[in-house]
Design goal:
The chain has 13 helices and five strands. The chain is mainly alpha-helical. It folds into two domains: 6-188 and 295-323, HUPs (Rossmann fold, 3-Layer(aba) Sandwich); 208-289, Tyrosyl-Transfer RNA Synthetase (Orthogonal Bundle), CATH 1.10.240.10. Strands 1-2-3 form a three-stranded parallel β-sheet. It has a two-stranded parallel sheet with strand order 4-5. The longest helix is centred in the C-terminal third of the chain and has 29 residues, at 295-323. The model has no long low-confidence stretch (mean pLDDT 92). The structure holds iron/sulfur cluster (SF4). Iron/sulfur cluster binds at residues 222-223, 226, 233, 235, 238, 240-241, 259, 264, 266, 269-270.
Length: 327
């Protein structure tokens, strides 16, 4: 049987995950783990670019791993591991740093978006070098595919450039990875912002109980022209409708016509939406409770994943050192 191609996906451990993470990444990762040899990176060094305070990193990591498990990621098929526990990440990062110019990194559109979105006044080297560390993360595992949203495609392009440059300079070690684009890559935030994001405080968490979801949806922005219940609305500008698209596809046509005609009011429409989201979250929340009472299992998953990841990383670094005639 042909070997499965390997892919690498990663996330920064910033705590409990939200529906935006699910729609933009996790749902796709769960599907991909059956088609590919998947490795799942917990990018705990990358998190330092936006938060130097590491007090919460361990708890945030555990919370994130629980969310990965409850949505269906299988650590037997696809190991979970922390970047900080595999020292080869930093070693390869250093070597790759010699292969990219400062001007190339400054042209990275993702950096510009991050500086704007997070109001960053002083760009640290960690921001600039972020795609180099990401390239090391991917190529250390010889990842041939990287599941990403559109915004991360420029980073995959830098990874491809680094792989090409390394191979040209020292001999072939790395295949150039390709982006595997996530189809439904973004969920609009509850405030109407283009992206659901923890830093913007506009999220529905995977661990939110029904009363919390109901309260959050109640405050969600809708079509500003639909002021009274019977006013005709425009579903295409309403974020609640975009949630229906994802979590309530069966009733979509009915909701659309009810909104346009004015027969459906926003209060009822939001209630339908929160009930569908709660239906989706209910088994996830139950599984989370089980795992929270069984943290040793979660920790063991990390230790096992790190052992598997380390053995691949060590082998790649041996090839790199040999190609570079180091030692
Ligand atoms: S009826 Fe529903 S889709 Fe239409 S504006 Fe109100 S919340 Fe949005």
């Amino acid at each position: 049987m042909a070997e499965k191609r390997r892919i690498l996906s990663g996330m920064r451990p910033t705590g409990k995950l939200h529906l935006g993470h699910y729609v933009g990444a996790l749902e796709n990762w769960v599907k991909l783990q059956n088609e590919y040899d998947s490795y799942h990176l917990i990018a705990d060094y990358h998190v330092l670019t936006t938060n130097l305070n590491i007090d919460d990193i361990y708890q945030n990591t555990i919370d994130m791993v629980i969310d990965w498990l409850v949505v269906g990621l299988d650590p037997e098929k696809s190991p979970f591991f922390r970047q900080s526990q595999i020292k080869e990440h930093t070693e390869l990062f250093l070597i790759f740093s010699m292969l990219v110019t400062k001007a190339r990194l400054e042209r990275n559109p993702t950096l510009k978006d991050q500086v704007r979105d997070l109001n960053i006044e002083n760009i640290i080297y960690g921001h600039l070098g972020y795609p180099i560390l990401q390239s090391a993360d991917i190529l250390l595992y010889k990842g041939e595919g990287v599941p990403v949203g559109e915004d991360q495609v420029p980073h995959v392009e830098i990874t491809r450039e680094i792989a090409r440059k390394f191979n040209k300079q020292y001999g072939f070690v790395f295949r150039e990875p390709k982006p595997l684009l996530t189809k439904f890559s973004r969920l609009v935030g509850l405030d109407g912002d283009a992206k659901m994001s923890k830093s913007l405080g506009n999220t529905i968490l995977l661990s939110d109980e029904p009363d919390v979801v109901n309260a959050k949806l109640k405050k969600a922005k809708t079509d500003p022209q639909k002021i009274r219940r019977n006013d005709p609305g425009r579903p295409e500008v309403c974020l609640v409708f975009s949630y229906h698209k994802k979590f309530n596809p069966d009733e979509l046509a009915e909701i659309e016509s009810g909104c346009r005609s004015g027969e459906l009011g926003c209060v009822d429409c939001k209630l339908k939406c929160s009930s569908k989201i709660n239906e989706f979250l209910s088994p996830i929340i139950d599984k989370r409770k089980e795992l929270e009472n069984n943290l040793d299992t979660v920790k063991e998953i990390l230790v096992n994943g790190e052992t598997r990841a380390r053995s691949v990383a060590t082998k790649t670094m041996e090839e790199v050192r040999s190609a570079m005639k180091l030692g």
